[in-house]
Amino acid sequence: MKKCLECGKEVDESFKFCPYCFADFAEEDNSHQSDVSEPIENSTRTDEAEEKKSAETDEVLFADRYILEEPLSCSEFGTVCLVKHYKNDRLYILKDFRIVGKTKPEREKIGKNLEYIANALKTLKHINLSSVMDSKYENDTFSVIYEYQTGCSLDEYLEDLKLKSGYISEKTALTWARDIAELLYFFQKEQKRPFCCCNILPYSFLVNDEEKIKYINIGMPVFYKETGIKNPFENEILDNSKISPEYDLFCFGLTLLYIISGKNLTPSSINIPTEVPKNVRFPSLRQVTQKLLNEYSRHNDIQDILQDIKNIIATYEKAPELPEQEKAEFNWNIYLGSVKRLNSFGTAPSPFLYLSWSIMVKSASRFYLQPSGKGLTVLSDKGELYLISFTKAHIIKKYSLNINAVPPVINNDIMYINSSSGQTAIDFEKNEPLWDFRTKSMFLTPPSITKDAILTLSYDGFMVKVNPTDGKPISMENIKGKVMAPIIYDQARLYIPTLSHGLLAVNRESRIVEWELPSSSFTSGAALSKDGRLYAGDGMGTIFCVDASTGKEIWSSSMKGAVIHGPAISENKIICSTSAGQISAFNKDSGEKLWTIDYGAKSNPVFCISGTFMFMTSPEHTILTANIENGTVYRQIKLKGKANSIPLAVNGMLYCTSDEGEIYAFSSRD
Q1: pLDDT (tens digit, 9 = 90+) per residue, 475-524?
Q2: Which residues contact 223 (CB under 8 A, 6 or more apart)?
Q3: What is the DSSP string of 180-211?
Q4: CA-to-CA separations, 650 to 353, 367, 372, 375, 626, in angstroms, rounded
Q5: pTM of the full predicted structure?
Q6: Would you say the C-alpha torsion 382, 387, 389, 393 has a positive or negative sign?
Q7: How do the residues of the chain divide into helix, strand and coil, expressed in percent and rounded to 5?
């Protein structure tokens, strides 16, 4: 044994470099160091009490009452999700608001005030109102549960009819006007004190399957005001001068104007129309609309407005019946709320559309998903490792490894994790860390597991062979070129993508480089087919197919942008994705490009393959499903936060994550 003068570790006599710190050993005799070996420090062992504490996780959204079904939308300040009550399986809408930019006491005060407002809203029940059912303030986030309504927004409904050259009937317009007026009468006249819900605007209404109009945003503007968040539908933050019955009547006028003329205006003062056009589709409502829009100069009472509308309806019903213009067919199944809804982009059903469960963990910029015999493993680039049940939102075990991790590899329920500071092994059978190998070099690619050793490539151009049982290094060799992607191998050779020397084929016995495929910037991994062909992609957007034994190029093809993911082999196809937002499939034998999916942005899409389907994620909050045969895209699913992992399809489930720390499990709707 000899001792490294840099780090003090003792290693085998034959080593020319220290595998722990990669320092050179002196040429002179350095072997007369002490034969007494120091035990390798196991930095992953922690006190049992700390381990138990670190295993505690953030609870799922309203874990005691509600289960997340599907994220609907998200923004910088909050999210909207479809949730289900765990007892009665009823669906609800969850909206949350993050309180930011204030001191902790101020945030807590705002949170208490919001809960007080929500409690007042819970008492309001009306047939045209989507009521507030529950609320919660925790960790600077205020969440509200609303009744769930099927259908689509008012503007979506009218815009869709316009595209199909269809129109709502006058009877429908009058009914909606009466329903909104009755709702305002309920707020302003039937409460102990007038209630100002604010912003009776088109975005606040939904049209259900029966063409009934529902107010779904009660309290939202006030919530925005309390948290200091700008209402995305307004040009300015709501102020106290607008929280009044008059302002609600004015906004009611804007909604009626949209219904009868198609003009969707914001309540900004610069957009207030001086006069309602005379050629509106339903002139019967023109005078009422004009009254409401003049609310600030000529105050009205909602009771009078409601009576005016009822008088118009009575006159309309007494008039001779005229044949209504035939309404364009409208398919409600395209909107959320119907199990039979169609796909967004294709016509055939696609799997994995039902959110089975989700769970929140510590946020990270990148997650790595792997299946194990004990459950789903989720590793963050910050070294947080979770072992989660495949079938429900339950964390079996949590490890805090304190490393900057890269994609792990699992073999026989042992996970081997490379990082910028060494290598770690986790034994899921024993449910504890197995060993820890620390070094000053950076291992930025996943390890490769051979029959008797773990092959680990360093960014500095070394290949370290590690004993899988105890983590001690067996040997180390210099590999020319910086390593950019994982090593793959067959019985005869190791295939190593490097940055400066292209793709290398190294003989496993002699360690001699047998051939090189030159490239200035290899960025993706390589794939090896059963017929002895090797596929790889480089940073210039070129896909190569070479003979694995000779390195002779068989074909090459090109893509837009650097190849970042793949190649993956699926039957007769090679599939890759690029930094320019493209995913392409090539014929495995000829290199002919078969199809391309273009995200239209530099979104770095990644994917996994399951049968004849491919599941893709990109940072733009989405998951896409595509048919591998022709590249047809079927379904877009929005996530809470940006997708930040390669999706994993296993046992009929699809798993993915977001940068906000949300882990999702999708299953088939069948």
Answers
A1: 888 776 677 677 888 888 888 888 767 888 988 888 888 998 887 667 77
A2: 97, 114, 117, 142, 144
A3: HHHHHHHHHHSSSS--------GGGEEE-TTS
A4: 15, 17, 11, 11, 17
A5: 0.53
A6: negative
A7: 20, 35, 45
